[in-house]
Amino acid sequence: MPRCVAPARRGFSVLFALLALAPAMLASISSAHAQSPLLRPFPATALRGELVVTQPPEILLNQRPARLAPGARIRGIDNLLLLSGTVAGQRLVVHYTLDSLGQLLDVWVLSPAEMARRPWPTTTEQAANWVFNADAQTWSPR
Q1: Tens of pLDDT along 58-103?
Q2: Of the residues 57, 116, 138, 139, which has the maximum number of CB atoms within 10 A of its CB?
Q3: How far, in Å, CA of 45 to CA of 103, rounded?
Q4: Is the dihedral of CA 122, 127, 131, 136 positive or negative?
Q5: How many C-beta neighbours within 10 Å does residue 45 have?
Q6: 3-state SS, residue 88
Q7: pLDDT tops 60 at residue 35
Q8: Residue 109 region by backbone torsions, left for phi larger than 0, else alpha for psi between -120 and 50, else beta
Q9: Which of 38, 31, 108 is nearest to 76 (CA)?
Q10: Which helix (H) or strand (E) holds 124?
Q11: Measured distance CA(9)–CA(113) in Å, rounded
């Protein structure tokens, strides 16, 4: 007398096959994402500079002493948050914004593709005299 166990086992075998393939599918998706260039939108208030974290929250910004604001966010090339201690001593080309006290609030470590976007203002005076195209993420002098 036949039992109805076989169809249920077939369903489980398909489920197990899909679960076995899931890591391979996720790996291919993540590797494809890692190969595509990450083009991040930056605010019009972002300036370009060189950052060296000396002793957090103390930093050198464009070779001048400065300070990270409380709650400052440093984002790496992959746009993930970095702790200031993990990048201590490294010279990083960054885009940054300042808070009302002149402390660094948001920092983005630039990828080579983002560094190639030129010109980009390095001072607030330049930013005030240039025009920012937010869609193209480009600056142009007036």
Answers
A1: 999 999 999 999 999 999 999 999 999 999 999 999 999 999 999 9
A2: 139
A3: 14
A4: positive
A5: 15
A6: strand
A7: no
A8: beta
A9: 108
A10: helix 124-129
A11: 52
